[in-house]
Design goal:
This protein has 107 residues and is an alpha+beta fold. It has 4 helices and 6 strands, in the order E-H-E-E-H-H-E-E-H-E.
Length: 107
């Protein structure tokens, strides 16, 4: 089976603050075909997010496939509030790298 990495299919993969207690992730595609390929593969789902980020499903606040923007978005709860002692990413902008190498089956 041939695969492509998510980073090679998406235009933007990013993470950012969603308030003091959440981090949101955006995976945005330039082409509808790439968006549909990833969406229909079912690879990017709550179970995979839990595995990549070592969290339980109840720690995922939202998971949305947003067709009008060719985007998949999800939000997770932070373990520590943004800016609190021991919290390592105040802006939440360094959390996306585990998404880059996700393998998506292609024909």
């Amino acid at each position: 089976m041939n695969t492509k990495k998510l980073v090679d299919l998406a235009k933007t993969i990013r993470s950012k603050n969603a308030g003091t207690d959440k981090i949101t992730f955006d995976i945005i595609f330039r082409e509808k075909d790439n968006y549909e390929l990833v969406k229909k593969s079912g690879v990017l789902n709550k179970s995979l997010i839990c595995k990549l980020y070592n969290i339980e499903e109840q720690e995922i606040a939202d998971f949305v496939e947003f067709d009008p923007a060719y985007a998949i978005k999800f939000t997770i709860y932070r373990r520590k509030p943004s800016g609190s002692p021991g919290e390592s990413d105040v802006f939440g902008c360094q959390q996306y790298p585990p998404l880059l190498d996700i393998e998506i089956p292609v024909q």
